[in-house]
Amino acid sequence: MSILKRVIEDLDSAIKRDPATSSRFEMFVTSAGLHAVWGHRVAKFVYSKLRMRILGRVIAQWVRFWTGIEIHPGATIGRRMFIDHGMGVVIGATAVIGDDVLMYHGVTLGGKTLERGTKRHPTIGNNVILGAHCIVLGNITVGDGARIGAGAIVTKNVKPGATVVGTV
Question: Distances in Å between the alpha carbon of 84 and those of 26, 112, 160?
Answer without folding.
Answer: 14, 26, 22
